Amino acid sequence: MDGTEGNGGQPGPADRSHRSSVSSVGVREVQLKPKHQPYKLGRQWQELLLRFTDAPDDDVAMDEPSLQFRRNVFFPKRRELQIHDKEVLRLLYEEAKGNVLAARYPCDVEDCEALGALVCRVQLGPYQPGQPTACALREKLDSFLPAHLCKRGHGLFAALRGRGTKAGTGEQGLLNAYRRVKEVAGSESEHEASLSPHYRAYLLKCHELPFYGSAFFHGEIDKPAQGFLHRGGQKPVSVAISLEGVHVIDSREKHVLLGLRFQELSWDHTSPEEEESVLWLEFDGDNEGTPVNKLLKIYSKQAELMSSLIEYCIELSQAAEPATPQESAAGPASAPGSSPPPTQHPQLRRQGSVVCSRIQHLSTIDYVEEGEQIKRVKPKRSTSFFSRQLSLGQGSYAMVQPTESLEQG
Q1: Which of helix, strand or coil describes residue 308?
Q2: Which has the higher per-residue pLDDT, 117 or 331?
Q3: How far apart are alpha carbons 167 and 303 in whole angstroms?
Q4: What's 401's DSSP letter?
Q5: How many CB atoms neighbour CB 47 within 10 A?
């Protein structure tokens, strides 16, 4: 859980945070403000877990927080590009690498290989033709690629398990990317200094990911109804909230289900006292060509924290807007010597990219406005279940004719 009210003061590139491993519900994180005292929060840790997690009482009683040095959620990516201190770059690199390897940052295969190649360069040095590099990569493959890309097998079941993964991904693709890593001339005199360009290259590549630098929360969403009995259930998700927007990530399939900038969504939350702890995300969409408002329901005991963080991030972005140079008929105006406004990195748009939204995999509540009233849009059926013809047998079954009440459910 990251802080919900901001840090106060000037945010830095990294900040302190508590982190706790709870066996039944995974990792919970709290980003600390400068005024926070870790010792006092440690004394209150069980109270925080009871309030913001679904962990059983036994796990809460046994859990202990750990203090870690982490990137500040409120530190803009553009400020990272101005950092030259090699130790700060290394810390940012190490955290980003950990998020990529843990698949917390879902990446396409091509990007995993490019990022893994930079890790190879940092850990193994420059690529040297003729050296037994492939063996070294094979032995430490999980140090360079996420675990779900390292598991390889043979046969049909291996192919089914590797959904969304290209055939042949592994040490060969990583080795090819390693060969392509460019060296910076004139920086080999000092080993640590020579690594700084590779730290920066790794961070720049991560900046292309729309959820880089996010705070992560745990939750569940409804699965779309499937099959004859319309069975649904729920699936676990991670909700990534950054200064730019919100992303809902499938925790098992390692891909984005929904990505929204703040200007593209409305949100609210309900507390357990009202009904249940839920974060509601509303966004524009369509239902068979009809423009609708879509509501996504995210079940999470951290709904209150997520709602507060969204509100604070929007406040920060609105506070920064007056500093943007005014535009005139002659074009954008800027003060002498000032840097131009930062450009937003485009999202990756490969077909089937893991960072693209998969709204068809979501179970949403769809509404359409009609004057002052809002009614639910019910999905149309191409054929009614009650009008299907019997394909086998000549029994005494009398087919039920569809009626308006049946069709409207």
Answers
A1: helix
A2: 117
A3: 39
A4: P
A5: 11
User: What is the Cα–Cα distance from 72 to 307, expressed in whole angstroms?
Assistant: 18
What ranges in 29-145 are assigned the alpha helix state H?
A: 38-43, 45-52, 57-62, 77-80, 86-101, 109-124, 133-139
What tokens were used for 181? 């890593």
Which residue, chain included where needed, has tokens 């909230």?
Answer: 241
Could you tell me if 14 and 4 are in contact, meaning their C-beta atoms sit under 8 angstroms apart? no
How many other β-carbons are positioned within 10 Å of the β-carbon of residue 84?
A: 9
pLDDT tens digits for 180-235?
998 866 444 455 458 899 999 999 999 999 999 999 999 999 988 776 665 668 89
Q: Check if the beta carbon of residue 243 is closer than 8 Å to that of residue 74.
A: yes
Tokens representing residue 247 in the block = 């992303």
Rounded distance between C-alpha atoms, residue 84 and residue 182, angstroms:
19
pLDDT for position 177: 92
Name the pLDDT band for 65 (thresholds 50, 70, 90). Answer: confident
Angle at 221 between CA 216 and CA 223, to 5 degrees: 140
Query: Both tokens of residue 218?
Result: 């745990």
pLDDT at res. 211: 94
Distance CA 79, CA 64 (A): 34
> Which tokens sit at 271?
């507390």
- Residues 6 or more apart whose Cβ sits within 8 Å of residue 130: none
Question: What separation in angstroms does the CA of 365 have from each of 282, 286, 298, 382?
Answer: 9, 12, 12, 20
The pLDDT tens digits for 265-313 are 999 998 777 678 899 999 988 877 788 888 999 999 889 889 999 999 9
In degrees, to the nearest 5, what angle opens at C-alpha 127 toward C-alphas 123 and 128? 125
